[in-house]
């Protein structure tokens, strides 16, 4: 079996001990193959040699009938005995070089990698493919090494640029998180996984044919399209100021008709304000934080906003669950990592959340976004940015958007929004916004509201721009710009009203202006540049 002829898309690792009661191993294997498994690894951690040999030999016959390659975990002797297509070896198994000598020419050798160092070694040793994991927590294997996380896989895949080594991710991947996993693991350079490896997501099923078919379909859909834009909810035709303004006009006209429910887990400084801003826009807020209700809320909301401003343990638990469920339902998640540079706790929380679910938009000021990437280019003071921003904000937001696989909104006197390819520079707003609390948080509510509208419109008309296999449908770049623009233009109108004497009277006037804002008023004042 030649490396180039192997399809790693849906890689089944067997686990006989996980079969449902009464389910025959070979029957389950055959059904998995019918469902669309593209490569099989026999993994037997407890079997004696004779039993392993028997299982491997029978499995080989079945796989051969489906023309699917068979690999053996760890045991070179078993692979040789049954004429397997190759082996999968762990870090404490036979070295690649020796396995290569023992096995026939063109045998496939895969290596488990948990760290950059292990991956570098596997590349040097000439592995044909790597299994990167564990991505998420799993009950299937006792893990002795830290979880890699989705973003960790992405940074490892970069190392495979320019090589022909294939990569699959493993550990805790299932139907609910497979698309999020494929999407989130694409590297900054556009290097995507070749496939997904699972045990329990198929083996524990009473209907492994269906389980495999469901996974295979998502993987197949995701693999369509160029990897850098793959799965991202953006236009692949390029943007101009005119097309963006046209789209924003449509979003503004639609929001009051669709009246999307915006689920917001936000901080207790701004909850009321953010809810009022959401209503003024024409959306509906629900400000719930309890983990137990997150699955139900994901069903009914149009988008989710997560803001870590005043984080409590119950809200944290709620955030972890909410984003997961909203991802699974392909709805937008807007993330506001408030004050992430301020404490070690917040840094850990942000990493945790972004490894658990995929944000659609991440919004922050220069200090927050700098802290997110561990850059010391911008200092932060509490939740505010101290001093100047980035030397090259356009490059910064583009790079971060590619790395985080989402839209990045960098707020400040000038706002920068990027999808990783295009950058919009926005110069609307008023100084009063900096003199009241919660204006940044309310911007998050606005962005989430327009993301919901864009996603609902795309879902209502799948023929228009919907890319299959993408995590969220609808143009999230334009939606993020719309949210920022509407809020900032309303602030410009509010600030010059006769009844506004200062920041105190400004906020109620802002809510009034948001409630009466028309697309025409926005178009008249918009100061946007596309680079
Ligand atoms: N190897 P499930 S995790 C066999 O991290 C295996 O190398 C892992 O099982 C690694 O799909 C794992 O049921 C178990 O989570 C994967
Ligand atoms: Mg092993």
UniProtKB/TrEMBL annotation:
InterPro entries referenced in this protein's UniProt entry, alphabetically: Aldolase_TIM, Hyethyz_kinase, Ribokinase-like, ThiamineP_synth_sf, ThiamineP_synth_TenI, TMP_synthase
Catalyses which reaction(s): 2-(2-carboxy-4-methylthiazol-5-yl)ethyl phosphate + 4-amino-2-methyl-5-(diphosphooxymethyl)pyrimidine + 2 H(+) = thiamine phosphate + CO2 + diphosphate; 2-[(2R,5Z)-2-carboxy-4-methylthiazol-5(2H)-ylidene]ethyl phosphate + 4-amino-2-methyl-5-(diphosphooxymethyl)pyrimidine + 2 H(+) = thiamine phosphate + CO2 + diphosphate; 4-methyl-5-(2-phosphooxyethyl)-thiazole + 4-amino-2-methyl-5-(diphosphooxymethyl)pyrimidine + H(+) = thiamine phosphate + diphosphate; 5-(2-hydroxyethyl)-4-methylthiazole + ATP = 4-methyl-5-(2-phosphooxyethyl)-thiazole + ADP + H(+)
Record GO cellular component, one term: cytoplasm
Entry keyword set: ATP-binding, Kinase, Magnesium, Metal-binding, Nucleotide-binding, Thiamine biosynthesis, Transferase
Pathway(s) the chain acts in: Cofactor biosynthesis; thiamine diphosphate biosynthesis; thiamine phosphate from 4-amino-2-methyl-5-diphosphomethylpyrimidine and 4-methyl-5-(2-phosphoethyl)-thiazole: step 1/1; Cofactor biosynthesis; thiamine diphosphate biosynthesis; 4-methyl-5-(2-phosphoethyl)-thiazole from 5-(2-hydroxyethyl)-4-methylthiazole: step 1/1
Pfam families: HK, TMP-TENI
Requisite cofactors: Mg(2+)
Annotated NCBIfam families: PRK09355.1, thiE, thiM
Family: In the C-terminal section; belongs to the Thz kinase family. In the N-terminal section; belongs to the thiamine-phosphate synthase family.
Record's protein name: HK-domain-containing protein
């Amino acid at each position: 079996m030649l490396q180039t002829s192997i399809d790693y898309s849906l890689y089944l690792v067997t686990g006989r001990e996980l079969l449902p009661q009464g389910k025959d191993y070979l029957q389950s294997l055959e059904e998995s193959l019918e469902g669309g498994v593209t490569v099989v690894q026999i993994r037997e951690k407890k079997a004696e040699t004779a039993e392993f040999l028997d299982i491997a030999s029978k499995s080989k016959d079945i796989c051969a009938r489906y023309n699917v390659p068979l690999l053996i975990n760890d045991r070179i002797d078993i692979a040789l005995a049954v004429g397997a297509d190759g082996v999968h070896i762990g870090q404490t198994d036979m070295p690649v070089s020796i396995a290569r000598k023992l096995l026939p020419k063109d045998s496939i050798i895969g290596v488990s990698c948990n760290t950059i160092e292990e991956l570098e070694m596997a590349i040097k040793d000439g592995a044909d493919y790597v299994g990167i994991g564990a991505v998420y927590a799993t009950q299937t294997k006792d893990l002795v090494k830290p979880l890699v996380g989705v973003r960790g896989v992405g940074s490892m895949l970069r190392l495979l640029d320019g090589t022909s080594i294939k990569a699959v991710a493993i550990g805790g991947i299932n139907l609910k998180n497979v698309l999020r996993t494929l999407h989130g693991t694409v590297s900054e350079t556009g290097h995507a996984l070749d496939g997904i490896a699972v045990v329990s997501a198929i083996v524990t099923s009473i209907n492994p044919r269906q389980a495999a078919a469901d996974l295979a379909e998502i993987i197949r859909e995701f693999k369509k399209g160029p990897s850098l834009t793959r799965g991202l909810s953006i236009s692949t035709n390029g943007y101009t100021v005119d097309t963006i303004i046209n789209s924003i006009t449509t979003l503004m006209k639609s929001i009051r008709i669709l009246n999307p429910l915006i689920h917001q887990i936000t901080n207790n400084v701004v909850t009321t304000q953010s809810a009022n801003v959401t209503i003024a826009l024409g959306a509906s807020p629900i400000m719930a934080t309890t983990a137990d209700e997150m699955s139900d809320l994901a069903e009914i909301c149009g988008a989710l906003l997560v803001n870590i401003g005043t984080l409590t343990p119950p809200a944290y638990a709620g955030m972890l669950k909410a984003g997961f469920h909203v991802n699974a339902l392909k709805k937008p998640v807007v993330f506001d990592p408030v004050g992430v540079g301020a404490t070690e706790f917040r840094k850990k929380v942000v990493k945790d959340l972004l490894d658990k679910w995929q944000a659609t938009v991440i919004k922050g000021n220069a200090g927050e976004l700098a802290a997110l990437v561990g850059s010391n280019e911008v200092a932060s003071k509490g939740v505010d940015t101290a001093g100047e921003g980035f030397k090259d904000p356009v490059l910064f937001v583009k790079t971060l958007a590619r790395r985080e696989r989402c839209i990045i909104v960098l707020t400040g006197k000038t706002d920068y929004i990027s999808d990783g390819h295009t950058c919009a520079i926005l110069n609307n707003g008023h100084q009063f916004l900096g003199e009241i609390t919660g204006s940044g948080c309310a911007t998050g509510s606005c962005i989430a509201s327009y993301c919901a509208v864009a996603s609902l419109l795309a879902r209502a008309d799948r023929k228009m721009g919907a890319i299959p296999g993408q995590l969220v449908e609808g143009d999230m770049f334009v939606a993020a710009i719309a949210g920022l623009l509407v809020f900032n233009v309303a602030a410009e109108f509010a600030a010059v009203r006769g009844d506004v004497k200062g920041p105190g009277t400004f906020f109620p006037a802002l809510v009034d202006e948001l409630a009466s804002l028309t697309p025409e008023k926005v178009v008249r004042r918009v100061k946007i540049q596309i680079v």
